[in-house]
From TrEMBL:
Protein name from the UniProt record: Sec1 family domain-containing protein 1
Organism, scientific name: Acipenser ruthenus
GO biological process, one term: vesicle-mediated transport
Superkingdom classification of source: Eukaryota
Gene3D superfamilies xref list: 1.25.40.60, Syntaxin Binding Protein 1, Chain A, domain 2
Ranges in a coiled coil: none
Keywords associated with the record: Protein transport, Transport
Amino acid sequence: MGLEGEDEGAISMLSDNTAKLTSAVSSLPELLEKKRLIDLHTNVATAVLEHIKTRKLDVYFECEEKLMSKSTLDKSLLDMISDPDAGTPEDKMRLFLIYYISSLQPPSEFDLEQYKKALTDAGCNLSPLNYIKQWKAFAKMAAGPTNYGNSGTKTMG
């Protein structure tokens, strides 16, 4: 009689293990699909990180943030633009335009020519710079008359 109880326990344990195994096998396709998606996203993230490292976008981002917050740069802007190993021509132009737009005092004509030469040597198209120069000139002209707007006569009422 003692053996019968043990047989029933073994059969119950075997049945539980079989149910767990069946459940694992049935969820295998779903798990494989999840693994495939994770691998896919990991590959995309790795490729993006590689592009960030190759273009040194982290350095550009840090420099752009410092330019906008008026902090001192670790490396001169001209050195960054002239570095052939860092960034694309578009990255270099974006960096210079951020400097040009956010600076309170525009660079001297001599400095501007140096920047233009460095940008041209880096393969940059200077038309965005020409556009921004024109835009700043228009903005400066538009801001001029408002300084004299309050010098009119007052009405009595």
